[in-house]
């Protein structure tokens, strides 16, 4: 199955997504309301790395009101580590936990008059399924149990997308506005200095270049091809909503239509 990014990137149409609902109880992290006024897709934490039932319900309701697509951001069961610690799990157990998270979020999405429209792994799981074929296949199995038609948002060329294509599931290619890239087109580990870009002017400029020219400059200086249908702005970065507004305005000024993929 052809990736949606392959079909659409030449049209200068891009989706803007952000991670939302990343709080727990009285603790809050993301400015959900402000970001939902800007993005077209919301990757909602499903309770395993962040989020709880009340937060999930509230974010789904706000997203539905604004016509923002709701995505299940599935992760390892790691609240203490914010889902950024790798966990070795049996594939069938991982698949079950992916299905569980999607189902939990979908109940709240449907109660709000919407539905889960896609799935995106979070943190360590996202990075793991770039190369780990077994865990990638388990994630896809978990998604297909919930709904075989759900698109999978992830890094182009990843094991996750290969597993999805093999299973007949739709895929959507993603790029990152504020993450450093390697020359191979993967993300620089957060353990490395400079893995997250904080200069807002730079982030805005590289976002436009990825959407218009389909290229990003790697941390080592090489131009890297980027074919993406969706662009991620991390919701947990300082002033994330203001940065997202700047990116969206710059994309529009450059002739890029900001539209959801799902």
Automatic annotation (TrEMBL):
Protein family (similarity comment): Belongs to the LamB/PxpA family.
InterPro entries per UniProt: Glyco_hydro/deAcase_b/a-brl (IPR011330), LamB/YcsF/PxpA-like (IPR005501)
Source organism of this protein record: Nonomuraea maritima
GO BP terms in the entry: carbohydrate metabolic process
Top EC class, one word: hydrolase
E.C. numbers: 3.5.2.9
Pfam families from the UniProt entry: LamB_YcsF (PF03746)
GO MF annotation list: 5-oxoprolinase (ATP-hydrolyzing) activity; ATP binding
SUPFAM superfamilies assigned: Glycoside hydrolase/deacetylase (SSF88713)
Catalytic activity: 5-oxo-L-proline + ATP + 2 H2O = L-glutamate + ADP + phosphate + H(+)
Function: Catalyzes the cleavage of 5-oxoproline to form L-glutamate coupled to the hydrolysis of ATP to ADP and inorganic phosphate.
Keyword set includes ATP-binding: yes
Protein name (Swiss-Prot/TrEMBL): 5-oxoprolinase subunit A
Keywords: ATP-binding, Hydrolase, Nucleotide-binding
Gene: pxpA
UniProt subunit comment: Forms a complex composed of PxpA, PxpB and PxpC.
């Amino acid at each position: 199955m052809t990736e949606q990014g392959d079909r659409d990137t030449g049209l200068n149409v891009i989706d803007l997504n952000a991670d939302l609902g990343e709080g727990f109880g009285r603790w809050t992290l993301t400015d959900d309301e402000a970001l939902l006024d800007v993005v077209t897709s919301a990757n909602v934490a499903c309770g395993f790395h962040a989020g709880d039932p009340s937060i999930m319900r509230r974010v789904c309701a706000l997203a539905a009101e604004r016509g923002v697509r709701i995505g299940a951001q599935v992760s390892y069961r790691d609240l203490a580590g914010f889902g950024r610690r790798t966990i070795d799990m049996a594939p069938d157990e991982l698949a079950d936990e992916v299905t569980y998270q999607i189902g939990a979020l979908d109940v709240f999405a449907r109660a709000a008059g919407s539905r889960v429209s896609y799935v995106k792994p979070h943190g360590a799981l996202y990075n793991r399924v770039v190369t780990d074929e077994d865990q990638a296949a388990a994630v896809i199995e978990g998604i297909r149990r919930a709904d075989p038609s759900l698109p999978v948002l992830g890094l182009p060329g990843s094991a996750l997308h290969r597993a999805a294509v093999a299973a007949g599931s739709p895929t959507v290619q993603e790029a990152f506005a504020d993450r450093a890239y390697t020359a191979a087109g993967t993300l620089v580990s957060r353990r490395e200095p400079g893995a997250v870009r904080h200069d807002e002017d730079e982030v805005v400029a590289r976002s436009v270049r990825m959407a218009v020219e389909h290229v990003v400059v790697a941390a080592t200086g090489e131009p890297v091809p980027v074919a993406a249908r969706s662009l991620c702005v991390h919701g947990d970065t300082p002033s994330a909503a203001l940065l997202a507004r700047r990116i969206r305005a710059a994309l529009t000024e450059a002739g890029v239509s900001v539209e959801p993929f799902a």
